Structure formats: structure tokens, C-alpha cells
Amino acid sequence: MPKTINVVFTDILDYKSGNSELTKLYMSEHYGLYPVYSAKTIGETKVGEIDSYMFDLEGLQLTTNGANAGTWIYREKSKFSLNGDARLYFPKKEFQETLDVKYLFYSLQTAFKRKNFDWTTKATIRNTQNIKINIPVLPDGKFDLETQKELAKKYQDIEQQRNIILSKVENFRDIKIVIGSDNTTNYKKAQITKLFTPKGGDMKLSKPYCKEHIGMHPVFSGSTTREIFGSIDNFKYNGEYLTWVIDGLAGYVMKLNGKFSITCHRGILVPTEECKNIDLLYVKYMIEPIFRKRARGRIGVNGKNEYTALKPTHIMNYNDSILIPVNENGEYDLAKQQELARKYATIQTVKEDIYNQVKSLTGIIVE
Description:
Elements: E1 4-8, H1 9-12, E2 13-17, H2 24-29, E3 31-37, E4 46-50, E5 55-63, E6 72-82, E7 86-91, H3 101-113, H4 125-128, E8 132-136, H5 145-174, E9 186-191, H6 192-195, E10 196-200, H7 207-212, E11 214-220, E12 228-232, E13 237-245, E14 247-248, E15 253-262, E16 266-271, H8 280-294, E17 296-298, E18 307-309, H9 312-318, E19 321-326, H10 334-362
Parallel strand pairs: 3-6, 11-15
Antiparallel strand pairs: 1-8, 2-7, 3-4, 5-6, 5-7, 9-19, 10-16, 11-12, 13-15, 13-16, 14-18, 17-18
């Protein structure tokens, strides 16, 4: 192992904050060749191009605010600018010949992950000023540039393999596993929109509304878990329903029961007159892979950067069908649906366990 020393990163790096005056209006009035990057960490970070630039160097951009505060982005040497809520760090003049910026990128990523920066704990100068990183040194105590470069290459290879694994496990999560036929069960194809009417949630159910109407009835939004958005003194639905995420991680289906409401980020499948002897849990396992496949938008590595959408009108237009067990009279077989639903629930539990274990292992910080 190479010898290293532990240094406060601000002792070796200078910084310059982004310019909050680089608004859309400014960029439209000063259009040019040089990109302006935002503090976004998801998707495209370039927000415009102007006729001047703040930087002409290789550096590390730090997002200082928001849910992804503390996230680092490597910027190769070029001419560019940053708008607000971001800072650019670069080696101090006396260390420019002995520090590898890509090595610093991986080291700072590791150090900042431990701090859990977010909306409340922002990556301010004060909150980050004492963070330390390890840097390889030569026998004479000077920074070892060649070892930094070698380690940066290894970290890059590890990151690439990690992303490949995460991409595969996300695909595995959405794979539809079909239970083999026992040759005694007959099925009938049923159009989803014949059994259910897709509807969107209520746009008025904002955080301020929930605060003004505090009560005991839950409001659900676009979360893929049973996380409650708020609790209010009224409700829209009463009973068992299937609901799905409209935007974000679109297409994931959740069964809700009781008195509740949903925001505009969640849709609901309201049963029609034809929806008789139907087990909702069975239907959930049948339609979720279809909905996930139909969702359209941006899907990033390991799902983290995903922003997809599946509106009620999309479901109506697709007219997808599912297979439902029927008895000897050709009627929907409720008992068989429930039996299959239990089996699919077991499969889903196994899939989620594998998914969570892989996510946990790939989240291990590499020193």
C-alpha cells in the first residue's frame, strides 16, 4: 500500500462559487459558445450558452444545496461557467503539478458520502471546511502524482463495473416472472381498461393544503413505498384500490385500502361494472411489468436518475390486456387468482431481497 497523508481538502484546493446572476434572461441576452452548468446532479446539467466564461481549467463541481447536496461532478479542462448553488474547486497554484484532479474526485466523493448532506444539512463552506482526504506521498513527503493517477484509474474501473451491476439489477427488478401453467387452469384475456377506469389524483392536494386541513386520513403521492404525503380531514376514496406512480419512477403499482386520497403524482384504477371476482393483488403483479414497460422518459443508471411518466390517458390509449384464470364455467376464478397472487408475492419478496443485497454491496465505500 502506498504511504498517504490525511489533509483537509480546502488546504490544497481553491474554489470559486457559481454566479446566481446567470439567469435564463441573462443567457438569452448574452447567447454565445460557452456552456453554463447548473447545480443539477440528474440528467443534463447544461442550462445554456453565453458569450463569456468563468473558468478555463480542469476542476470539481460541488452541489451545495438540495436533496443531492454534497455531490461532486468532474469537469474536464474547458471554458465554462456555473450558476448558483454550485462551487468549483481546483488545485491551488503550488499543488497544480502534484495533484491529480480525477483522484481528488473519487476521494472527495467517498469523504462527502459519509456526511449525508441534503436540504437541511447543506454543503456550505462552514459544514465542509474540515473534511479530510488521503493523498499518496513520496518518501520525501511530496504528493505522489503517479500513484494518484494509478489509483484514479482503478477507482474509475470499479465505478464502471458497479454501474454495470446496478443497471442489471434494476432490469432484474422489472423482469416479469411467469409461473408455469399446471395444465388444468384456463385463462381469459381481459383488457385492463374494461376492468378499470384510470384516473389521476387531485392537483389541489399540496403541502400547504394538507397543513390547512390536518386530519386522520392519509394522502399518498408518487412514492414507490407506502410513505404518506400528508394526513387530512377528508378523503376521496374508501375501499381497496390499485394505484400507480404517474411520474418519477412511473408505473410502479401499489394497493391501497381504507379511506384515503392521492395527489396528481399518483393515479388510481377505479373498478368498472365488469370488475367482478377479481383479486387486486393478482392484477397488481400482472399489470406492473406492463406499466413499467409503458413508462416513458429518462431512465438513468440503477434507476436513481429516472424520471418517467405514465398518465391515465396513456393507459387508455395502449389498451393492454392481462390473462386471468377462469373456472369451468368461463367465469373469473377468484380462488385461483389468490393462490397465484401468493406465489407471485413470494417471488417478489425474493427479488426485492436480492435487489436490496446487491444495492447494499455496491454502496460500500471503496477506500
